Amino acid sequence: MATSETPADEPQQTSGGVRLLELITFGLGAALIGLALWVVVARFRNPIDAEWMTGAVRDGVDRIRDGKPLYAAPSARFVPFVYTPIYFWLAGTLAHVMSTFIACKVVSLAATLTTGWGIHCISRSLGARKRWAAIGVLLFAATYPLTLFFYDIERVDALSATFVVVAIALLVSRPGMLWSVVAGVLLGLAFFAKQPGVLAFAGVVAGLGFAGERRRALLVAGVGSVLFLAMFAYLEVTTHGWFRYYCVKLPQAHGMRPELFSTFFILDMPKAFAMAAGSLAVVVPVAWSFLRRRRAPEGESWQYLVFAFVLAAGMAGAFSLRAHLGGWANVLVAWLPLGCAAAAVAAARAEERARGTTASALVSVLLLGGVSLQLLGTVFDPNDNSPNADDLAERQRFIALVRKLEVEGDVLITTSGHVAKGSSVHAAALFDIIRAGDRAPDDLLEGLAQRRYAALFVGAPDEFLCEKTSCDELVATIERHYFVAGRRHERSRNGMTGFDARPRWVLRPRKVTLAATSMKALLLRQHIEMGLAETARAKSPLDVEIVPQDDIEALAAVQVEATLAAGGPDPH
C-alpha cells in the first residue's frame, strides 16, 4: 500500500545476480550522466547555437534585460515565440550580472537539477526505497537524448518541467496545508512557464477531488486560479493584448494532424519503455477504478491518486503536443520526468509484493534488467551534439561576413538569432504569424519592397511558402526584390540538435525589381539562381566563408530568357 511517509529501508538479502544487475544499472546511469556532462561542457566551451531557436531566445532575454517589452507588435527586428514569459524573466534578470548566454544556461541547468530532486522526492514519498528513488533520477538522465538534449539549452522546456515536478513533490511529501498553498502557487504559475502546465494544474485538482481531499482541492484550485487569473490579466493589460495573441491564439493555429496521432505511441513510448511501463502501471488501475466504480481503489493514499491523475495529464499533454504540427520530441518533458518517478514507484511496489516469496529474486532481476536495457538503449555518442572548435570557427566566420555586409545596411537572419546588430526576426516566429493567416509585419514588407536590407540569410529561399495568402505575399515580396547571391558551405555535422535550419543561403537586393507575376515564374528564376550559387560554392574551399556573387542576378536573367526561348516550361 502506498503511503505519504518515507519508507524504511530495511536490509534484505539479495542474490549475486541482483547485486550484479544493480552494479550494471548504476554503472550505466553514471555513464549517461557522464555523457550528458560531456555535451554540457562542450556547449560552454564552444558557444554556438545548440538549436536553431536558441539565439532568438537570447534576443528575447536581452529585451527583458534592457527593459523592453517581450510581447509587442511584430516587427522586422523581433517577433516573440509562442512561449510564456517566466523563463525570459528569470534569465533576463540574471543577464544583468552575467552574459545572456550564461544566464540562460544557468536557468535551464538549475531547473534540471531541481527536477531531479523532485523526481527523487516524489518516488520516496510514494513508497520507493532509496535504491529505486535513485534509479528514478538515473532514468531522468536517460531522457536527455529522448528530449533532444534540451535540458541545458536556451529554451523554456527544462523550467516548465520543474514547476510541475516540484509542485507535485511538495504536495505529496508535505501534507500540511501550507505546502498545499505553495503547490497551488507553482501550479497556478506553471502555464506561464509553458502552456501545458495548465493540464498539470487541472490534473492535480481533479485528483484531489477524486481522492476525497475536497478542502485541499479547493485550496490548491483557489490559490492557483487566483494567481493564474491575476497574472493573465496583468500580461493582457501591460502588453495590450499581445501576450494573448502570441501565447494563446497563435499556438491554436498549429493544429493537430491526424497523421501525427501515432507518433507518441509508435515512436516515443517504445523508446521510453521503462517510463511508459511505469506510467501505465500507475495510471491504468486508478483510471479503471475511476471509470468503472467512480471511487478510488482500496488502500491507496490520496497522494498516490493525485500523482496518477497528474501523470495521466502529462501523458495526454505529450500526446497532444506531439500530434501538433511542429511538435518535436522536446515536448515530452510534459510527461517523461513524471514517468521516471512512476517507473521507480511501480518497480518498488512490484518488488515489495514479491518480497518473501520464491519469485523475489526473479522479480528484482527482471526489473533491474529492464531498467538496464532502458539506460543502455539511450546511450548516445556525445560528439553528435557537442559543438567543437570547427563549429565555433564556422560561426565566427559567419559573424564576420554579417558584420562586413552590415557596413552596407541592415542584415536579416531568419534561422539564427543573436548575430545581427539590433536582432532580427526569426523564421519560426514569423511563420507562426503568417500560418495563422495574418500578414507579415508591415515594416518587414516595406523594407523588403524598398530593398532596404543589405542581405537576407535564410534556411531556404522559399522557406515561408504555405497554403495561406499571407505566405504568398511574403514569398513574392522577397523574390521580386531579392535574388539568391550565395550558398554557404555545409558540413555533415554541426554540433546542434533538433531541426536543422542553418542559414544556408544569402539573398541580396536586386538592381531591378521584378514585375508582379505568377509564383511559378518567380520560383523558376529563383531555382536558376540557386543552381548558379551552388556552382560558385563548389569552387570555394570548405573552411572559407562564401562571398555573395552579385553577378548571379544578371546570369540568371539570361538563363531564364534562354529557357523560355527554347520552349521551356511556361512560368504562367
Structure description:
α4 (100-125) packs antiparallel against α5 (130-146), α4 packs parallel to α6 (157-173) and α6 packs antiparallel against α13 (302-322). The protein is 60% helix and 4% strand. Mean pLDDT is 93; it is low at 1-5. Strands 1-2-4-3 form a four-stranded mixed sheet. By secondary structure, it is mainly alpha-helical. The relative contact order is 0.12. It folds into two domains: 57-380, no CATH class; 386-565, no CATH class.
What is the N-to-C order of secondary-structure elements (H for helix, E for strand)? HHHHHHHHHHHHHHHHEHHEHEEHH
Largest β sheet strand count, sense and barrel closure: 4 strands, mixed
Number of domains: 2
Distance between the termini: 73 Å
Radius of gyration using CA atoms only: 27 Å
Residue share in helices? 55-70%
**What is the averaged pLDDT score?**
93
Secondary-structure-derived class: mainly alpha
Uncertain runs? 1-5
Number of helices: 21
Shape verdict: elongated
Q: What strand order characterises the main sheet? A: 1-2-4-3
The number of distinct β-strands equals 4
Percent of residues in β-strands: under 5%
A few lines on this structure:
By secondary structure, the chain is mainly alpha-helical. The protein folds into two domains: 57-380, no CATH class; 386-565, no CATH class.
Key phrases:
572 residues; mainly alpha; 2 domains; four-stranded mixed beta sheet; 4 strands; 4% strand; elongated; disordered N terminus
Question: What's the helix and strand layout?
Answer:
Layout: H1 16-45, H2 54-65, H3 86-94, H4 100-125, H5 130-146, H6 157-173, H7 177-190, H8 197-210, H9 214-238, H10 242-252, H11 263-271, H12 273-293, H13 302-322, H14 336-354, H15 360-377, H16 389-406, E1 410-413, H17 427-435, H18 442-449, E2 453-458, H19 469-481, E3 482-487, E4 505-509, H20 519-538, H21 552-565
Parallel strand pairs: 1-2
Antiparallel strand pairs: 2-4, 3-4
Helix pairs in contact: 1-5, 1-15, 2-3, 3-4, 4-5, 4-6, 4-14, 5-14, 6-7, 6-8, 6-13, 7-8, 7-9, 8-9, 8-13, 12-13, 12-14, 13-14, 14-15, 19-20, 20-21
